[in-house]
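USER: Note each token:
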Amino acid sequence: MNHVLEHLIDPREFLQELHAAMAPDATLILMIPNPGCLWRLLFKSAWHGWDPPSHVHHYPASALKRILRQTGFQNVKIDTKARPDGFTRSLIHSGRLPQARYLWLRLLLLPLLPMMEAFGLGDELICIATKR
């Protein structure tokens, strides 16, 4: 599930139905925006990941883990993925960067991305969970 959960009105019901439909020992992989990412901390309300009204819910890693366990998933592992376009998309969203000038900035950010991931500050939460 690539950026689906944040769009759902009732994610708990969806996850329960998904869990029931999955085969035993199946693996769920999902990605959502990380409200604890560095860019959200820097840009606050101008962070591109808020994306209202399209994004209905946002989940910090602890809440995502809790909702998955409550809906029957086990072995929940969550990491972050940092992408170079998160910063530039937030700059564009905030009106501080013309779209035509973002490529060079993305290249400059590449060395910072592994450090962001190591500290859980990447743009996306990537979750892997199993049905047992």
